[in-house]
Amino acid sequence: MVDVETFIPEAKAEIAEAIGDDNAVIALSGGVDSSTAAALAYDAIGDQLTPVYVDTGLMRKGETEQIRETFEYMDSLRIVDATDRFLDELEGVTDPEEKRHAIGEQFIREFETVAREVEAEYLVQGTIYPDRIESEGTIKSHHNVGGLPDVVDFDGIVEPMRDLYKDEVREVARELNLEEIISERMPFPGPGLAVRIIGEVTAEKLDVAREANHVVEEELEEYEPWQALAAVIGKATGVKGDNRVHGWVVAVRSVESRDGMTARAQEIDWETLQRIQSRITGENDTVSRVVYDVTHKPPATIEYE
Ligand code: XMP
Fold this sequence. Notes:
Blueprint: H1 4-19, E1 24-28, H2 32-45, E2 49-55, H3 63-70, E3 78-81, H4 83-90, H5 96-117, E4 122-124, H6 129-136, H7 148-151, E5 156-158, H8 166-175, H9 180-183, H10 203-220, E6 227-240, E7 243-256, E8 264-265, H11 270-283, E9 287-292
Parallel strand pairs: 1-2, 1-4, 2-3, 4-5, 7-9
Antiparallel strand pairs: 6-7, 7-8
Helix pairs in contact: 1-2, 1-8, 2-8, 4-5, 10-11
């Protein structure tokens, strides 16, 4: 386990030395990694750092407001509302990797615009050790690792947490007094709810996924899962009132893991599962069925796409 009391000053010194009098940008996602990296870098270089949050419309419920609150102390914070542009790019895209690619490309365009405006020479990233391992393999393309530097011509990339595991990042976040909602937050994929929707991403499916993920996060908090999620996986017949309906099927998944490379499906008690089911179907008229995923990783991945 990393010794946070020595890690933090060393990381700040490394950032300050790498960037000097130049400017840097960092992409915020609302997750613990980028938030911690941003907090470290802001402490190190102040407003020479522009933290950029791109609202892709694929984020968790309340994410944008949360970011605004948490980072409002950083005067240089930029929030870009790109919701419509992402939905346009995703229209008709059904293949998982094409989806990731479309999101990654649009993200780069949005990020690049700000990086150019603030004349950033450096990119700070919250990359952690498992990200580097997974992106070396061919399991899935992770758009937030490795994609940005090729496009924007930075003088350098600073990755102060490159050797840390997730639990170590959480230690650092706690030591930096980041709010609990961030330090204890479950990992959330860069492409957001798009990988929790099988097939085309539409505004309707996004609404279902966003609300269902919120319910799952709330209801499963006491189980302290490494990651818990809901995915819109298709349509099935159901009955609402006196009518047969063809509604959305929502899959609920909750896993234990250390680093996301392998995972075990969690055993959840029946009452909790029923409460989740009734909230998801009750809060959204178009959902006809909720199922619980009992598959470990491998053979399944954590996300659905
Ligand atoms: P899988 O689904 O591959 O997920 O078992 C392992 C971990 O990685 C996250 N994940 C992603 N993170 N971009 C990301 O930043 C992605 O494209 C992506 N796909 C999966 C997933 O949420 C889990 O924590």
